[in-house]
């Protein structure tokens, strides 16, 4: 059992490097934080983490390998992911064109709806990306040998999810600290346009990647 943990420190370092690289998760959290404030941004990070937990569990129990090898299912998930990222991109573009923004620190029922929206968008944008499953299947074997116990596999997979959550919550906190600048209408319109382009680009890359 001790041998299973010999590469854990290296795995953590690799995970930190990987989560710091901007991707769809980054764009979704930025978009939700700008659209609904700190609470919505934080809940989008929680949604992404919940998705990572689901995918990590699938990888640890062998279900992910079945999904990746079932080409029609893998491709169906991939195209759903492409469509959802495009949908979020269109929302960002529409918001940029309209230029009408609510107070980021608003409360009441809108806050509750915003939290649910963030959670839903974070979860769906990540769970419909089959490349996350492929990541777990490609990386975990580099640190763990065949026959590794499921609890150890789960610990590695959940570590990736936890590190990602810490980074995304830090990102939300930074954006919240800069809310006075971000609340300016021209800035928010520009950021909406930028995140829309980013989401569209990530969707296009997912569509083009047939691996």
From TrEMBL:
Cited InterPro entries: LeuE-type
Superkingdom to which the source organism belongs: Bacteria
Main location: membrane
Entry membrane topology: Multi-pass membrane protein
Transmembrane segments: 43-67, 79-97, 153-178
Key words of the record: Cell membrane, Membrane, Transmembrane, Transmembrane helix
GO terms for cellular component: plasma membrane
GO molecular function: amino acid transmembrane transporter activity
One Pfam family cited in the UniProt record for this chain: LysE
Compartment(s) where it occurs, according to its Swiss-Prot or TrEMBL record: Cell membrane
Matching PANTHER family: ARGININE EXPORTER PROTEIN ARGO, ARGININE EXPORTER PROTEIN ARGO-RELATED
Protein name as annotated: Threonine/homoserine/homoserine lactone efflux protein
Originating organism: Geodermatophilus dictyosporus
Lineage of the organism: Bacteria, Bacillati, Actinomycetota, Actinomycetes, Geodermatophilales
């Amino acid at each position: 059992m001790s041998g299973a943990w010999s590469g854990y420190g290296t795995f953590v370092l690799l995970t930190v490097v990987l989560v710091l690289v901007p991707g769809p998760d980054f764009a979704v959290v930025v978009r939700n934080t700008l659209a609904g404030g700190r609470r919505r941004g934080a809940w989008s990070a929680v949604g992404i983490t919940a998705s990572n937990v689901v995918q990590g569990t699938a990888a640890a129990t062998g279900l992910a390998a079945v999904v990746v090898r079932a080409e029609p299912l893998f491709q169906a998930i991939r195209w759903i992911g492409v469509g959802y990222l495009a949908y979020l991109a269109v929302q960002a573009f529409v918001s940029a064109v309209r230029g009408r923004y609510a107070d980021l620190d608003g409360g009441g029922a809108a806050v509750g709806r915003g939290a649910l929206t963030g959670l839903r968008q974070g979860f769906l944008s990540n769970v419909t990306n089959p490349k996350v499953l492929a990541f777990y299947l490609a990386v975990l074997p580099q640190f763990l040998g065949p026959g590794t116990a499921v609890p150890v596999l789960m610990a590695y997979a959940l570590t990736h999810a936890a590190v990602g959550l810490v980074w995304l919550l830090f990102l939300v906190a930074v954006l919240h600290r800069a809310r006075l600048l971000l609340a300016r209408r021209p800035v928010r319109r520009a950021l909406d346009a930028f995140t829309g382009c980013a989401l569209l680009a990530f969707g296009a890359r997912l569509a083009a990647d047939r691996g």
